[in-house]
UniProtKB/TrEMBL annotation:
EC numbers for this chain: 2.1.1.-
InterPro entries: SAM-dep_methyl-trfase, SAM-dependent_MTases_sf
GO terms for biological process, alphabetical: methylation; rRNA processing
Natural source organism: Neptunomonas phycophila
Residue ranges of domain S-adenosylmethionine-dependent methyltransferase in the record: 13-289
Lineage, broadest ranks: Bacteria, Pseudomonadati, Pseudomonadota, Gammaproteobacteria, Oceanospirillales
Protein name, as recorded: Class I SAM-dependent methyltransferase
Length: 294
């Protein structure tokens, strides 16, 4: 393995993005820095030699107190301790903002670290804005927006437990959760309600690639895009996220051209420095559009 770790501090971040096929020998795993532990997220089994080499590399870092392995190829994606301190953190910081995390209970621990630049982008532009956060999960975008001075954020996700964590995340940062709404609704049955709560300066859509029984990206993302002009103010911004490795940026561009030609593509956000992809169209895409008619 040819792995060089970035400098560590007390801010959570992805430190190895092997799945992007830019790190020799690390193609089957990513590594997340969740101070004070490292979490190796393996998508196929690692050999004992690989694990020993990773433990040697990671444990040499002075700030690392424990190492955990998540086996994503196994049922329920179990997490096990493999070195050092056995106590997992219950919260992390990213760019000075705090988030609750739960390592080992669910497949995902509570914050997608490859979206760090997206949250920063929203935070820097949120002052006085009204936002709609679709597929909000634990409301990371809402925390960033409220920290940036947003007037209001409407969060929608079918998981009420994720929304509950989202509300707790706002409170954890001393942010006013009365300026946020948390809707545990089916998006496709909620367009009327969302329009009544709008219009919005910013609409963020960060759907799963596939969620059995509720969301198929090829079929359902164009249905979302079709509704955006009815939700956005004129000159409002749509932040469209896509993390389906089999679909590139052209999928979003084509869907917008077909379903919402009033939206004009103005920017595609860079991924965090470590989160590089051998093929630029693989991995996470975050594309910015402006509503030019309404």
């Amino acid at each position: 393995m040819n792995i060089t770790l970035p400098s560590l501090d007390q801010q959570a971040r992805r430190v190895v993005h092997g799945r992007g096929h830019c790190v020799e020998g690390a193609e089957s795993f990513n590594i997340e820095w969740l101070p004070p532990i490292m979490l190796i997220v393996a998508y196929s089994p690692l050999t004992e030699d690989q694990l020993e080499a990773l433990v040697e590399l990671l444990s040499a870092e002075p700030l690392v107190e424990g190492i955990y392995l998540q086996e994503r190829d196994q049922p329920k994606a179990p997490v096990r301790h493999i070195w050092g301190d056995e106590q997992c953190p219950s919260e992390i910081q990213e760019h000075g903002l705090r988030y609750h995390v739960d390592i080992g209970t669910h497949q995902n621990f509570g914050l997608f670290l490859d979206m760090a630049n997206g949250r920063n982008w929203v935070r820097e532009r949120a002052q006085g804005k009204h936002l709609l956060n679709l597929f909000s999960y634990t409301c990371g975008f809402a925390v960033a927006a409220m920290a940036g001075g947003a007037a209001s954020v409407v969060n929608l996700d079918m998981s009420k437990s994720a929304l509950s964590t989202g509300r707790a995340n706002l409170r954890l940062n001393g942010l006013d959760d009365k300026r946020a709404r948390f809707l545990g609704h089916d998006l496709f049955k909620s367009w009327g309600k969302l329009r009544k709560l709008g219009p919005y300066d910013v609409v963020i859509a960060d759907p799963p690639s596939m969620q059995k029984g509720s969301f198929l990206v090829e079929k359902d993302y164009p249905r979302i895009i079709r509704q955006l002009p009815t939700l956005l103010k004129k000159e409002g911004v749509a932040v469209l996220c896509l993390n389906a490795p089999w679909l590139g940026r052209q999928f979003i561009l084509d869907a917008v051209a077909e379903e919402a030609p009033q939206l004009v593509h103005v920017e595609t956000l860079e991924r965090p420095e470590v989160v590089q992809e051998k093929s630029p169209d693989d991995g996470l895409k975050v594309m910015i559009f402006i509503h030019k008619e309404g």
